[in-house]
Amino acid sequence: MLATLQPVSVALKLGFLAVLYLFLLWVAWSATRDLRGRVAPSSVDQGTGMYSASAAGVMRAHEPRLVVERAPGHSPGMIYDVGPGAVLGRGDAAEIRLNDPYASSRHARIVLKGGVVVLEDLGSTNGTYLNEELLQGLAPLHHGDRVRIGDSEFTYEDS
Questions:
Q1: What's the DSSP call for residue 62?
Q2: Which helix or strand (DSSP H or E) is residue 30 part of?
């Protein structure tokens, strides 16, 4: 019986080492990906985690983002990375916090669905506008689209 366990033991050890090396490669890949997309620390607003539009050339070009055109409590030109998704609203659960009295606590969200970035109103009281039209259901976002929530207006960029 001891002779039959030895090959299994060796196979398990080799499998563990393979998984360990794959994990280490994944960590290294993630770290280099994050470091490549970093913005110079002087351009980041430490209070909000946002950076100015002048720093946009430093970031990766393929990431979806919202550029503030006008919004109470925000400077025009500030950029929010949307990544795989973000909720816009007044509440603490929102990734993009709005200081807008016309915004709900969870007003709208941007999410990646089937490889397409879409905008969705989350049942807000005052509605979400995409290119000055009241949003009904889900709508795909395209480069240059304008998103308006109350007095807050953003431009969507994806490249």
A1: T
A2: helix 2-36
How far is the C-alpha of 158 from the C-alpha of 64, rounded, in Å?
4
Q: Which region holds residue 132: left if phi is over 0, alpha if psi is between -120 and 50, else beta?
A: left
Please state whether the predicted TM-score (pTM) of the whole model is above 0.70.
no
pLDDT digits (tens, 9 = 90+) for 92-133: 889 999 999 999 999 999 998 888 899 999 999 999 999 999
The answer to whether the Cα torsion of 82, 87, 89, 93 is positive or negative is negative
- Convert the pLDDT of each residue in 57-100 to its tens digit: 444 446 899 999 999 989 999 999 888 889 999 988 899 999 99
Residue 92 CA, distance from chain mean position = 16
Inter-residue contact 59 to 50 (CB < 8 Å): no
